[in-house]
Amino acid sequence: MTFTTRRIFKSAVTSQNLIRELLQMMLLGELLAPGGNRAWLVSPWISNVVLFDNRAGGFASVNPEWGNREIRLVEIASDIMSRGTPLGIATNFDDHNNSFLESLSNRVEEAGLADMLTIVQREHLHIKGVLFKRGLLTGSMNLTYRGLELNDETVVYDTDLRTLAEARLNFESYVEASA
Predict the structure, then answer these.
(1) What are phi and psi of 96, to 5 degrees?
(2) Fewer CB atoms inside 10 Å of the end CB: C or N, the chain?
(3) DSSP letter string over 115-162?
(4) pLDDT tens, position by position, 24-81
């Protein structure tokens, strides 16, 4: 039997690292086999959170330039784009997001990848989702320190092709609506 959906309930006492590990696997999958459709990070609040702990060098084969340190979302997002996957960011207009958006935009501009990044801000955005070509993570979690580390959260990981296509259509509609 093949399962296409997994629900994870995270709290201070259950599944503390499971969501982070799943997010790492999704990101690694895109880094190692990039390209195709635009990937999406959709979160009303988004920060430059630590996603990989590379202090022991465990991710050195993915990107030797990272060095033995913690790797943050801006670096990973930029690396994904440099490997050929366009990236969409959808968030709201909250000032909390400005630092992340500015850091990512500057890094992408310096790397000559500005055409690979689409940023959409929507006044009433409350959807949360991380979409890559092989999986979709949705639920209550924002891409922030509190979302990853502190808050009780529930997320659903889905690999069903129909669900991925539906999410892609919905996320891509943000670009069309902002044009």
Answers:
(1) -55, -35
(2) N
(3) GGEEEEE-TT----EEEETTEEEEES--BSHIIIIIS-EEEEEE--HH
(4) 999 999 999 997 899 999 999 999 999 999 999 999 999 999 999 999 999 999 999 9
